[in-house]
Amino acid sequence: MRRSLIAAVAVTALATPFAIAATTGTAAAAPVPHRIPVTDFNKDGYADLAVSAGRGTVDGKTGAGYISIVYGSAAGADTTHAKETISRATAGVPGDPEQGAGFGLRTTARDLDGDGYTDLVVNDEPADVVIWGSANGLGAITALPGDSAFDLKAGDFNGDGKADLVANGRSGLETRFGPFTRDGKPASTKLLEIGEDDGPADIIVGDMTGDGADDLVTSHSFEEMQHSSKLWKGGKDGFTGATTPTGKYTVDGVIADVDKDGYGDLVAREVDHVSEMQEYDAGAVRVVYGAASGLSDRTKRITQDTAGVPGVGEQGDEDLGDKGDQFGYSLSAGDVTGDGYPDIAVGVPGEDIDSAGDTGAVVLLKGSATGLTGTGAQAFNQTTAGVPGVSEGDDAFGSAVLLADVNNNNRADLTVGAPTEDGTVKDSGAAWVLRGSQNGLTTTNITSFSPSSLGTAQDGAQFGGQLAQ
């Protein structure tokens, strides 16, 4: 087989808009500048990592799941000192470890109570929980009231500077406005949409209209058919309930201002209209540029066959059980080079390297004044010089990606998860952190870690399957 080189960051806005003079002499509101929120549980200025091992063994229960917290430092991801593990066996977390429960597979991070410390929300049965940040890192734990949601995402949907949650649950799509009290109660709630069969499959958060309030993009499918994604505009009163179709079949992704014009841009995985074929796709990333009205007419499709992007897009074969490259399976945004333009990390977990099928890779697409292109794109896998490990079949390197500045040098670093990497046991999983630099990502001072090095349960843990953002 051939050899080819190959974060979900939500983008929030600063609270204070500014104005420019219009040609008529009246003041017109300019787009609110964007800022990517930092996950910093102990507020020391270094981004922290919450790495899921959703199939890890806890108290003898296989697949119960746990989360490893690795704190940032001046030296990067600190895997030897103040690390911690959170599971259903952790004091204060409701429920008990259960076989196959997968605790930690769905997480989101944001400062819910406004104290300056990022909090971690774990979206899980029987109850969603918040683990509150503090000077000592994550600590106190609270169950969120009500039933657990299918999906939870954080943002600022009314532009008041307070973190909110949007929950996709049994009753429908609901906004929970912050600040939250320490018993998990929101300041208020608003039901956006009654639950439907073709309700949101996933949620992307960010400000596409440049008004300082985060918007939503939701993907939709029913049975085996994919439907167009929808934009929900935020505003001073939250969402109105009105939606605008994007006209694209997209799933997952991020909203980031990749051309720095003040409007967040949707960067998502574009898929075929038949949902069940996604794992056999070569993969594609669709960019829909933002505007004051929400969606502009300007879009771009990027694949491994786009000029400048390393590699070649390869389709899988369902009959042979051969997965496609799945370019765009995971996405994250952050400014790797420090030039002010968000870059996009693209996971390609189905990439084949030499004779190793589905070993995986990652690609960095760089933001610029002209938007997202293949110019200057970089690619990494486990055969890349300086990257620890060996490309082996079914490693799924790139299943999760996260751009976050773990050493606080104003350049985002890339964390990559490979949940089915074999360590001392099968499918224990692993993660790598590649440093950001003026020229892009570098393998200099790269960090890698796994359940074995962190001292946590290994067998089939699938560590690195999800990275909180």
Task: Provide a descriptive summary of the structure in words.
The protein has a four-stranded antiparallel sheet with strand order 7-6-5-32, with no helix packed on it. A four-stranded antiparallel sheet has the order 8-9-10-11, with no helix packed on it. The protein has one helix at 451-454; strands spanning 12-13, 19-21, 27-29, 34-35, 49-53, 66-70, 84-87, 107-110, 119-122, 129-131, 141-143, 151-155, 164-169, 172-177, 188-194, 200-206, 215-222, 225-232, 243-245, 250-256, 265-270, 285-291, 294-302, 330-334, 343-348, 361-365, 378-380, 400-404, 413-418, 430-437, 440-449, 463-467. Mean pLDDT is 90; it is low at 1-27. The protein has one helix and 32 strands. It has 469 residues and is mainly beta. The protein is 1% helix and 36% strand.
